[in-house]
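Here is one such tokenized protein:
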Amino acid sequence: MDKSLIDIDTSIQTALNDKKSIVALESTLISHGLPYPENIKVAQESINAVEESGSISASIAVINGRIKVGLNKNEINILAESKNVEKVSRHNLAIAINNKINAATTVASTMYIASNIGIKFFATGGIGGVHLDAKNTFDISADLTELSKTTMYVICSGAKTILDLDKTFEKLETLGVSRIGFNTDFMPGFYYYQTNKKVDHNYTNIDDLNNYLKTREKIGQEGSVLLFNPVPKNKAIEKEIIVEWIKDSVKKANINLIEGKNLTPYLLTEIARLSKSKTLEANMDLIINNARIAGQIASNYYKN
């Protein structure tokens, strides 16, 4: 990647040079995933959570066509408040850069940028996956392909609940993505604590987890590791309730012809309305919690 297109915060560049722990953070949650002003609060608290855990945070976005690694408060505000921020995955990242626009990075594009400059760890809320009607629409998130070919350690609470979680779990195996639990035997359901999908292995302490990650490196295994960290139990919502909200939201989206990249933010907003903001609270808590755990894991990784 041509470094002349990237502005890397000084503290992040120093950490890269000194091989210190860094955790990448995506920016789509700021522009599309959460409402204002909760989006600013979560972005800042995620940064704080990473740094309080002993790592350097690296929020990533495109501002006026420049790739920014390490967003300042003004840049976060631009993403949070502007109505014309593009959502970029790998397929349209270069368009945003070439056209000199503001754009928020998804899981896939954040991973692509972060891995290209040497960042190993990435924290997000939930990954994209296989959509509910994928057999007809072929709508499968580019996040899954990116996870299969980019080597990063991704801390998340599973795939977003509005997706087909069973098919997403199987697709991850097909793509060779390791599905690892951190104090959980099952893939989380994003808003709900766990699915019935058993992970490849559950590590219950950070030392053992990082020994595993380093073993992968020793044998030259490529592709990402998904490190599943469930939503905090006090914010988790029962699966049966969530499923009904999703059905109602999908039905409304179909009536209003909402599809493509607009579908996920629409469904998240509609489910938050039906839940009287319970899903919003769960989403916010799990994002910040994942950032905290990622900071701890990354800090331990570079100490040993």
Remarks:
- The chain has a mean pLDDT of 96.
- The longest strand covers residues 56-63.
